[in-house]
Each structure stands twice: as structure tokens, then as C-alpha cells.
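Problem 12. The chain below contains 359 residues. Write out its predicted structure in C-alpha cell notation.
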Amino acid sequence: MGKVVLVTGVARPLAGRFVRRIQRDPEVDRVVAVDAVPPEHHLGGADYVQADIRQPTIARVLAETGADTVVHMDVTATALGSGSRTTVKETNVIGTMQLLGACQKSPSVQRLVVKSSTNVYGSAPRDPAVFSETTPPKSLPSGGFAKDTVEVEGYVRGFARRRPDVAVCVLRFANILGPSADSPLASYFALPVLPTVFGYDPRLQFVHEDDVIQVLRLASHEPARGTLNSGTFNIAGDGVLLLSQCSRRLGRPTVPLLLPAVTWAGSLVRTLGMTDFSPEQIRLLTHGRVVDTTQMRETLGFRPKYTSAETFADFARGHGPGLLPPEALAGAVDRLAAALPEPGVTHYSPSHPPTHSAN
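Solution.
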């Protein structure tokens, strides 16, 4: 008998891709795809079960299928269809609690993989230059998806203590991008003009959808010799991009705003339904976030195919040209930079506010 893999959140394109891919692995005998909403995409030969993980029925699904591997992908920042932020939070937090309760009671479960996010670190002005998996955040996220991920990981740690016989792998993904990416940051980059925080140019990391699928597969199987597929791992492509570099590569102009104006702009675009411009999103676009991926490479044994820059380039190709050709936008930005005061009068770092010289 091969592995029986249960995957949550399969109505979303990324989870649907994972379902189609994992069932082709020779070690996998059956894939059980679970979501409260029927997916619009095909799931290959997987068995779809319509079930809401927020409800106790997920325990019956787990018991009836005898799944030995659970891949929890129903932790997300965006609503599906006409869903609300409340529904998203309930699915993230209450759904995770119900799923973990079901896993705890199931004697067949041997491996749990959880899709988490580097949002757990937050974004603050005094953050370290690079977060490792053991670096505590300077200030815990106060709301939104970032707070959800903190709560989700807390419940997962509790489960790991209660079921030490289960291999638990938490994957903290950086900003996921690609041709079909569905995230607040992808929606932000799709805006015709990008509102930014005046005086800041945050550092950002990205991970490609293809690499997300591959590392989830790796974590779902028994570890190769010399690797360990349990624990918590930062997952990101090599390198970083500044927000200004992202706007140039998209060919989209930026509108630098003072922080109160950015908050107002966020409320406006949320009202228009254009994107989730939450306070956490604003903090990310102010202070940025960079994580260390040493454990991903040395312990998990995974090396992403795409760098952060290559991931963003693939995303940009899938979203068409911006208002300005990248070359013209770069030239305009360079001319603007040349017209600014000489260095030493005003300067800023990628993650700290502008400071002024004493002259």
C-alpha cells in the first residue's frame, strides 16, 4: 500500500496544482482533496470530498480515508469568491484547530505539513536585517493574515507536543508569486500606479509557485538520507529586490505618500475592492522583510529553482506591460534622482526612515 495524502484548501489554484502533482509520485497510492467549495479546476485522479475544515466532520473524513499524510494548504490571506475576511480568519484559525484535533485522534496520521508564511515575523522599524527560524519578532503582528499565521503555528506546536510520533513540517513561505499568484501583494503589484511610503524602499523576497509545489512534495515524503523533513523552515528564492526595482521591472509608476496618506489610500483601494491593503501590508511595504534560508538548504535539502528576481520576472511577464516601458520608467526615475539634493542632506536605508544631517 502506498501513501494516502489528504490536502486541504484544494479550491485554490495553488493547492489544485499540488494535488495534481503529488498524485503522480510513485509512493502515493491515493490523494484525498478537501474543501468546502467545489474547485473550478480539475484535480486529476484525486478523490474530492466537500467538507468544511471548520466543522467536526473533518474528523470523520480523516478517519474514513485513513490518510497517513496531511498537507494543510488552507491557510491563506485572500478570500475565495465572495468570501469575507471573517470567513478567511475562521478557516485559518478555527479550521486549523479542527483539523489538528482530527489528526490528534487519528492513529493513521504519520506526517503533517503546514503551509505558513514569513508574515509571522511581522515588519517593524527595528527588525534584524535577516530573520532566522528562531529569531523572535520585535513586535507580534496585531491583526490580519499575519496574526492568523502566528495563531496557526501556535496550535501546530501544541499538536506536535501531544503527538510526538507525528513528523510535523511547517513551511514559512516568503511572498509567493508566479503567473497565477493570488495574494494581497500580487494584487498590489497589479495596480496601475503603486502607492509607496515616502522615504522608504523596502527589501522584499519572493518564492515561485513552482518551487512552492516542489518543496511541499519534498516535505510530504520520507526524508532523504542526510536531510530532516520535520521542523520549521523559511522558504524563499535567493536574493532580494527593492520595491523601487519591482516597480521599474513592472513598468508601473509609484506615488510616494506620507504614511497617514498611505493608510488612507489603503482604505480607499479596499473599499473599491481592488486589493487587500491591510495595515500588515503597509508595514511590509514600509520596512520590508528578509529571511535566512540556510536551514531550507542544509537541513531540508531544498534548493529553489528560481531566485527572487527570476520569480518576479516571471510574475511580471504574466501580468503584461505597465503604463510605462521599463526602460522609459528607469530613465525617468534616474532623472528624478539626479534632481534630488546632494547625498548627505537627506538619506535613508531600505528599512529605516529618512534622517537629516546636522548641517
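Discussion. The radius of gyration is 21 Å. Students who got a different answer should revisit the alignment rule from Section 12.3.
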